[in-house]
Write a structure and sequence with these properties.
Blueprint: E1 2-12, E2 18-29, H1 41-45, E3 49-61, E4 66-79, E5 85-93
Antiparallel strand pairs: 1-2, 2-3, 3-4, 4-5
């Protein structure tokens, strides 16, 4: 299961561009056991969990029906998985 959240603010720029910046985060939980021939019952029951918090930025270009953004997260409070950084990029174009 995944929960994404953010608190952002929009700043108008020149030529109708808009800049959105703020704080974002996510929570991820594994909700089912792992299965397979080489997985022990204790490994199968060890479900992962990740919490992350970071910065988000998005630029909207209304004249081109275009939006692109980036998010950088620092993961913490992990269980049964690796802990590190996460980067997400997005691009949206209206047709």
């Amino acid at each position: 299961m995944n929960l994404d959240y953010s608190v952002t603010r929009v700043f108008p720029l020149q030529n109708g561009f808009r800049l959105q910046v703020g704080i974002a985060g996510y929570e991820q939980w594994q909700i089912s056991d792992k299965t397979g021939p080489q997985i022990s019952p204790s490994e199968g029951a060890a479900r992962y969990r990740v919490s992350a918090l970071g910065l988000a930025s998005n630029v909207v270009v209304p004249d081109w029906d275009l939006s692109f953004g980036v998010k950088l997260f620092k993961e913490f409070s992990t269980r049964s998985t690796f802990e590190g950084y996460s980067f997400q990029g997005s691009l949206a174009i209206k047709f």
